[in-house]
């Protein structure tokens, strides 16, 4: 089997036993990119020279007989909204088309310290706003399973790159489902960790109270390995939790006997694609056959999650994106005569339609006179949504839902109707509002397209999620399905 | 000013806190430095950065709240104040909105010898913005402007008073007292000329007897105590004139033009910003435990009012003297140090308030830059007390000390300024003066007391001021009355 097809843990064994070098792995991945990237378009930037230099560094280390960590020498792709020192970080926006950060995001630094080989930066919906990666100001990324379809969003580039074997793993960010939904559409594993478990320092902010960095991988084991490296308190991020991060690979136990799984009825109502529902029901049966106890239950405030999200996220975004004004860096309209028109022209030109739509929504929601009616009210409902989960986790170990109500849709199918587009994140959004972890794992194909199963855990409940997801994976073959590119 | 109007003033004062590093990052807060040398990705607000609160800032803010008799909040948070300006890197300022760190305090000022209490509404923390450097003389005539972000993220406390101030003079006294307190607790340099203490004022007037406030204007850009008082005086007059002519005061922000001595409109209420405050999601709420507050409280030094009371009680100084000297911590520290070597507080107070302040103001320097050491100051007064030099000569010696920092004894010796107290030596001169000025002697005998003064002056002149004036007086009277 080609090296680019393999997982982190497989490649690590090969490196350790000196059967392959990091250089060979890296070259293999670049060969794959050369084969399929024209079709997939997952990358905004490739960093070949830097990657090969890093690979050599790791190979030298191995040659010297030094111990290497599980990520050393393995190619990774970083979503292009995480700052990389000296390397373009564009957020797939005209606004930052020329922005080269003078610093590394904490996750990037942690990966580099672990010996990871960064091979490039992946495409996204501009500033991570969208569910299809059609909102990239550069080009859309295509779903490796069907090039006529979207890879999901906003981390579509990161998900597609893993699905197409253009990288071994990648990082994405998830504000309302931006890791899990594309993982579901592309048939890979995607984890949104507990809010604060992975440092946000260096992640270009969309909605600060919801954003979270997480991994895309080819299996659950790899996700646990990546989390071991990127999780943990960061003194540069006040919101990062002070928590003794466990060794997540110890959670990879093939056993769900006695595990209580809640199935919220609110996630199975209208709008869900019948074959998605069927595959999820198969998964439930599978869990039951493995000894888990599955039970229908209720998260009564689920219907408010989407409206609450579309007040809070744009409100924070309107403020977070105010800094892109053409003064210090990034795009600037040079034709303006005075500072106010420079601001206006720069921002009119620099931002795409979806970003502008959300800035306007957020500005409105925070305006004096509307704050109480929208923002404050939304904060209160957010608390109710969180309490739904708190109550549920008194009884259940995990909650099981579809990741998305549908499989990947076709380009343009929803891009003219923002509301319809927003609905594709309906199963994932409440998890961000509650700040809890959620993982999407492949659970089968519907008409040749992947379907994702979402498992939701209590705060810092990643270990249970890994155990339940791992058990499912060990007893099924869905994660092994590959697109034919 | 018309007596029929009452003035209502509230002040908003910004003080830069003298922490070593900025409020949300590790960059230096040092004043000056080449543009954009004290910056990092965090204070520049680059994409992806996050603020981390500097604990020292919170400590200083609590200290400020306590010194202003405020209640310290157990739960407080940071909010974003959103507005666009090129020197504001994120286009929002991290500040505190509805839950400030301290509220409900007061400070006392002395107006015409009477104590008056001014309420403190709140004290809150925030980050400072950067600075625009215009290429031309003014913003309008500049082809371009540059931005210096060194000041960005320097910690500030904003201290908001109740509208309890009733005259421009009270406003100045309030600001002076506030500055003294901040300097006593050592949280700010309070250098108005460097912008580390800045003051905005809300001001309105109303006919005496009217209950509701008149329409207020906000005054900005007053860079000295004098400017504050002048600007407010101008604004009071302006508002009264409008009302007298039957007009209406417009609610607006006005700027003080120091050169022209007038206030000018900056922006009207219609152009006022909607700051769209909301809790900063990048910072966790601030929970302050009582133990910490108590610990800070125990480190509070003697404050100006306490020190003033001590001067009156311990040294027997008049209230006025105590007020003047304690108004500046550095000055009263100097006073206290002098008293280690000298034990007549009132005599010292006279010299400090007289010659010393006169020379400091004249040279426009601070007491900390004064060349006269407390030991030498004490020695000068001791020389007067011992009769070695006269009070008049002492002023000459003082001038020399102020210029060179020399010891007074050395100056007296070098310049031969020792007082002549030898009666026989003076007697010869007295006789000579009497012999040379028969007309004055005649006048004195005819009851013109002023003539005595002239004769004393002649003796002093002959000794270049060194003759002991008491002895000269005594001898002259003895001879003339016989």
Walk me through the structure.
Chain A is of the alpha/beta class. Chain A has a domain at 3-256: Amidase signature (AS) domain (Amidase signature (AS) enzymes, Alpha-Beta Complex). Chain A has helices at residues 8-16, 22-40, 48-63, 106-113, 156-163, 180-186, 220-230, 274-289, 305-320, 339-350, 353-366, 372-395, 418-423, 429-434, 462-474, and strands spanning 43-46, 75-79, 117-122, 169-173, 189-192, 213-217, 260-264, 293-297, 398-402, 438-446, 449-457. In chain A, strand 7 (260-264), helix 8 and strand 8 form a beta-alpha-beta unit. In chain A, helix 9 crosses helix 12 (372-395). Chain A is globular. The two termini of chain A are 16 Å apart. The model of chain A has no long low-confidence stretch (mean pLDDT 97). Chain B folds into three domains: 5-292, no CATH class; 302-415, no CATH class; 423-481, Arc Repressor Mutant, subunit A. Helices cover 39% and strands 20% of the residues of chain B. Chain B contains 15 helices and 16 strands. In chain B, helix 5 packs across helix 6. Chain B is elongated, with a radius of gyration of 29 Å. The termini of chain B are far apart. The A-B interface holds A 81-83, 89, 91, 96, 99, 101-103, 105, 200-205, 207-209, 235-239, 315-316, 318-319, 322-323, 325, 327-329, 339, 343, 363, 366-368, 371, 375 and B 41, 44-53, 80, 82, 84, 86, 89-92, 147, 274, 276-278, 281-284. Chain B: Its EC number is 6.3.5.-. Chain B: This is Aspartyl/glutamyl-tRNA(Asn/Gln) amidotransferase subunit B. Chain B: It catalyses: L-aspartyl-tRNA(Asn) + L-glutamine + ATP + H2O = L-asparaginyl-tRNA(Asn) + L-glutamate + ADP + phosphate + 2 H(+); L-glutamyl-tRNA(Gln) + L-glutamine + ATP + H2O = L-glutaminyl-tRNA(Gln) + L-glutamate + ADP + phosphate + H(+). Chain B: Heterotrimer of A, B and C subunits.
């Amino acid at each position: 089997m080609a090296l680019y097809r393999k997982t982190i843990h497989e490649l690590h064994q090969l490196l350790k036993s000196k059967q392959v070098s990091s250089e060979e792995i890296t070259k293999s991945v670049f060969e794959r990119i050369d084969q399929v990237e024209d079709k997939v378009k997952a990358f905004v930037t490739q960093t070949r020279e830097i990657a090969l230099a890093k690979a050599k560094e790791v190979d030298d280390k191995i040659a010297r007989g030094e111990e290497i960590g599980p990520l050393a020498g393995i190619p990774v792709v970083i979503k292009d909204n995480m700052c990389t020192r000296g390397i373009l970080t564009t957020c797939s926006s005209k606004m930052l088309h020329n922005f080269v950060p003078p610093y590394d995001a904490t996750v990037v630094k942690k990966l580099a310290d672990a010996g990871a080989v960064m091979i490039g930066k992946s495409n996204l919906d501009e500033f991570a706003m969208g569910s299809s990666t059609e909102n990239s100001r550069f080009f859309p990324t295509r779903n490796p399973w069907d090039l006529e379809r979207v890879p999901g969003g906003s981390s579509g580039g990161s998900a597609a790159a893993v699905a197409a074997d253009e990288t071994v793993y990648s990082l994405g960010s998830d504000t309302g489902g931006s890791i899990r939904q594309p993982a579901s559409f592309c048939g890979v594993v995607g984890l949104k960790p507990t809010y604060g478990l992975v440092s946000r320092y260096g992640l270009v902010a969309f909605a600060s109270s919801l954003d979270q960095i997480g991994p895309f991988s080819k299996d659950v084991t790899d996700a646990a390995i990546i989390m071991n490296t990127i999780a943990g308190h960061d003194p540069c991020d006040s919101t990062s939790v002070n928590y003794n991060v466990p060794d997540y690979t110890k959670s990879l136990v093939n056993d769900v006997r006695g595990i209580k799984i809640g199935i919220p009825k609110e996630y199975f109502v209208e709008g869900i694609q019948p074959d998605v529902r069927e595959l999820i029901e198969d998964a439930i049966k599978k869990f039951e056959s493995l000894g888990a106890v599955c039970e229908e239950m209720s998260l009564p405030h689920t219907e408010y999650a989407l409206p609450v999200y579309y007040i809070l996220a744009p409100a924070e975004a309107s403020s977070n994106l105010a800094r892109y004004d053409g003064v210090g860096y990034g795009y600037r309209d040079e034709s303006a005569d005075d500072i106010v028109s420079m601001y206006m022209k720069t921002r009119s030109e620099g931002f795409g339609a979806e970003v502008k739509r959300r800035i306007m929504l957020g500005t409105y929601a925070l305006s004096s006179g509307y704050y109480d009616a929208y923002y404050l009210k939304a904060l209160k409902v957010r608390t109710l949504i969180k309490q739904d989960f708190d109550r549920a986790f008194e009884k259940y170990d995990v909650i099981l839902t579809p990741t998305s109500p549908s499989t990947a849709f076709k380009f343009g199918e929803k891009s003219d109707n923002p509301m319809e587009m927003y609905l594709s994140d309906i199963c994932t959004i409440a998890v961000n509002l509650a700040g809890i972890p959620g993982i999407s794992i492949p659970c089968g194909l519907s008409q040749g397209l992947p379907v994702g199963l979402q498992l939701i855990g209590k705060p810092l409940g990643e270990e249970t999620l890994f155990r339940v997801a791992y058990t499912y994976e060990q007893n099924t073959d869905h994660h092994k399905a590959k697109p034919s590119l | 000013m018309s007596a029929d109007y009452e003035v209502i003033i509230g002040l908003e004062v910004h003080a830069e806190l003298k922490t070593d590093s900025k409020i949300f990052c590790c960059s230096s807060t040092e004043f000056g430095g080449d543009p954009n040398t004290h910056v990092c990705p965090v204070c520049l607000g680059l994409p992806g950065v996050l603020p981390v609160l500097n604990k020292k800032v919170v400590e200083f803010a609590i200290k400020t709240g306590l010194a202003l008799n405020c209640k310290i909040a157990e739960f407080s948070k940071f909010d974003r104040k959103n507005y666009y300006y090129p020197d504001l890197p994120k286009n929002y300022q991290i500040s505190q909105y509805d839950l400030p760190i301290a509220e409900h305090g007061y400070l006392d000022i002395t107006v015409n010898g009477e104590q008056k209490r001014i309420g403190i509404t709140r004290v809150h923390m925030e980050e400072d913005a950067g600075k625009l450097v215009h290429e031309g003389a003014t913003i309008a005539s500049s082809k371009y402007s540059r931005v210096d972000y060194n000041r960005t993220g320097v910690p500030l406390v904003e201290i908001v008073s109740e509208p309890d101030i009733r005259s421009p003079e009270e406003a100045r006294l309030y600001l002076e007292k506030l500055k003294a307190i901040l300097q006593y607790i050592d949280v700010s340099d309070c250098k108005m000329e460097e912008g580390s203490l800045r003051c905005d004022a809300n001001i309105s007037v109303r006919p005496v007897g009217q209950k509701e406030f008149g329409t207020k204007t906000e005054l900005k850009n007053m860079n000295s105590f004098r400017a504050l008082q002048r600007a407010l005086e101008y604004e009071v007059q302006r508002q009264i004139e409008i009302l007298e002519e039957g007009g209406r005061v417009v609610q607006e922000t006005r700027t003080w033009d120091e050169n022209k001595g007038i206030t000018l409109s900056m922006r009207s209420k219609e152009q006022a910003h909607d700051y769209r405050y909301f809790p900063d999601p990048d910072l966790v709420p601030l929970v302050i435990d009582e133990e910490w507050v108590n610990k800070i409280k125990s480190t509070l030094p003697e404050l100006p009012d306490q020190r003033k009371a001590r001067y009156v009680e311990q040294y027997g100084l008049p209230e006025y003297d105590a007020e003047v000297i304690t108004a500046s911590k550095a000055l009263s520290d100097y006073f206290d140090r002098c008293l280690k070597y000298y034990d007549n507080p009132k005599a010292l107070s006279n010299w400090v308030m007289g010659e010393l302040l006169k020379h400091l103001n004249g040279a426009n320097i601070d007491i900390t830059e004064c060349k006269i050491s407390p030991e030498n100051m004490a020695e000068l007064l001791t020389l007067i007390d011992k009769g070695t030099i006269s009070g008049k000569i002492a002023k000459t010696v003082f001038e020399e000390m102020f210029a060179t920092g020399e010891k007074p004894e050395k100056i007296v010796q070098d310049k031969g300024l020792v007082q002549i107290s030898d009666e026989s030596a003076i007697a010869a001169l007295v006789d000579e003066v009497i012999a040379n000025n028969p007309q004055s002697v005649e006048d004195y005998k005819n009851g013109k007391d002023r003539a005595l003064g002239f004769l004393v002056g002649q003796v002093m002149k002959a000794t270049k001021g060194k003759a002991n004036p008491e002895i000269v007086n005594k001898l002259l009277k003895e001879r003339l009355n016989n």
